[in-house]
Automatic annotation (TrEMBL):
<dbReference type="GO" id="GO:0005886">
    <property type="term" value="C:plasma membrane"/>
</dbReference>
<protein>
    <recommendedName>
        <fullName>Sulfate ABC transporter substrate-binding protein</fullName>
    </recommendedName>
</protein>
<dbReference type="Pfam" id="PF13379">
    <property type="entry name" value="NMT1_2"/>
</dbReference>
<dbReference type="GO" id="GO:0042626">
    <property type="term" value="F:ATPase-coupled transmembrane transporter activity"/>
</dbReference>
<dbReference type="InterPro" id="IPR044527">
    <property type="entry name" value="NrtA/CpmA_ABC-bd_dom"/>
</dbReference>
<keyword id="KW-0813">Transport</keyword>
<dbReference type="GO" id="GO:0042597">
    <property type="term" value="C:periplasmic space"/>
</dbReference>
<keyword id="KW-0997">Cell inner membrane</keyword>
<dbReference type="InterPro" id="IPR010067">
    <property type="entry name" value="ABC_SsuA_sub-bd"/>
</dbReference>
<keyword id="KW-0472">Membrane</keyword>
<keyword id="KW-0732">Signal</keyword>
<keyword id="KW-1003">Cell membrane</keyword>
<comment type="similarity">
    <text>Belongs to the bacterial solute-binding protein SsuA/TauA family.</text>
</comment>
Length: 375
């Protein structure tokens, strides 16, 4: 079972979420193993031990889900550089990579993921559809890093979107909801489930989107980084930077979620993961150039090749790493899902549990994050 759990991808096909084939066996690729010299783990040696480094934690392993996106830079760098394993001590990290959030929610509900980095829309949807029983949001990770990139020869303004094919990573994922909400705000008529309407919304794997854009199969895409920067490198133009739609350009792109079952059974492990996340984010912000290189090295392991420098630099410039879950923006994200037709009026009461995040922040001499307003 261990080999099957290490890395898996769940794909959506014909409207049904199916488990994909296991990929990228990472036993010898540095994940969960001692970091190589010169990495972040070396830089942080002696910086203090996490709850997992000096005591035995309650779980022998923890299954962590994330995407091969720069908007998931925290696990990209933290796993690649050994920072997560450092704070988790003898608890083995078992990473799993997904194309988009709905697949990760399916895995979490099935017990194949314990803790995951994920966008707000799948987290909201998973919480609401489970009646508040499936997950908790326990931390932030990234703000920004999502754009609508189009073929400038076909689309010069928003009105030109009519009749065009615009891709998103998956039905109901964060960028899918953002696109549908944006189209609704511009009075385009869309069927959220089928993607049919004034604009054809095409759900496409991030790995395939640049090729589809290059061949003319799609006319643009609302995607996260680095896929957006890849489309720019193919001659695309940013029509909408999602940051421009939010006050001060701040909105939650990636949160950290946990299975409520795992949280109740292993709070010490969850605390260790949050300390690892905080340590990684601090290192990324203190060493952006090294962190960018390490993130690219991790992407090379996961996708088979590193990003070209111009793609990496553009994508990196669009993301902001933060522990803050930006709780004030989540209700608006839920409203977007409502507008898009994915949810009825959602009740998000209890979706957050920031107690362990506040504990690790306070232990590091930092202020707790702003608590959400219950609605």
């Amino acid at each position: 079972m261990t080999a099957l759990l290490r890395i898996s991808r769940f794909r959506r096909l014909m409207g049904v979420w199916l488990a994909g084939a296991a990929l990228l066996g990472l036993a010898g690729c540095g994940y969960g193993s001692k970091a190589a010299p010169g990495t972040a783990a070396d830089a942080m040696a002696g910086s203090g031990s996490g709850p997992g480094s000096s005591t035995r934690l309650s779980a022998s392993n923890v299954k962590i889900g994330y995407f091969a996106n720069l908007t998931h830079v925290t696990p990209l760098v933290g796993l690649h550089d050994g920072l997560f394993q450092k704070d988790l001590g003898g608890t083995k990290v078992e990473p799993q990579v997904f194309n988009a959030g709905p697949s990760e929610i399916e895995a979490l509900n099935a017990g194949a993921v314990d803790i995951g980095w994920i966008g707000p829309s799948p987290a909201i949807n998973g919480y609401v559809r489970s009646g508040g029983r499936s997950l908790r949001i326990i931390s932030g990770s990234v703000s920004g890093g999502a754009e609508l990139v189009v073929d400038p020869s076909k689309i010069k303004n928003v009105a030109d979107l009519k009749g065009k094919k615009i891709a998103t990573p998956q039905l109901g994922n964060t960028q899918d909801v953002a696109l549908l909400n944006f189209l609704a705000s511009k009075r385009f008529k869309e069927n959220a489930s089928s993607g049919a309407g004034d604009v054809s919304v095409i759900r496409s794997d991030n790995a395939l989107t640049p090729q589809e854009f290059r061949s003319g199969q799609i006319d643009g895409a609302w995607v996260a980084e680095p896929t957006a920067a890849k489309l720019v490198a193919e001659g695309g133009k940013v029509l909408v930077d999602e940051a421009s739609l939010w006050p001060r350009g701040r909105f939650v792109t990636t949160n950290v979620i946990v299975s409520q079952t795992f949280l109740k059974a292993h709070p010490d492990v969850v605390e260790a993961v949050l300390k690892a996340s905080m340590d990684t984010n601090a290192w990324i912000n203190a060493h952006p150039d090294r962190a960018k290189a390490d993130a690219n090295a991790a992407l090379a392991v996961l996708t088979g090749k590193p990003l070209p420098a111009r793609v990496l630099n553009l994508a990196w410039s669009h993301i902001t790493v933060t522990d803050d879950p930006l709780t004030a923006t989540l209700q608006q994200e839920a409203q977007h899902a409502l507008t898009a037709g994915f949810l009825k009026q959602p009740d998000l009461t209890g979706i957050y549990d920031l107690s362990l995040l506040d504990k690790v922040l306070t232990a590091a001499g930092r202020s707790p994050v702003e608590e959400p307003e219950e609605r």
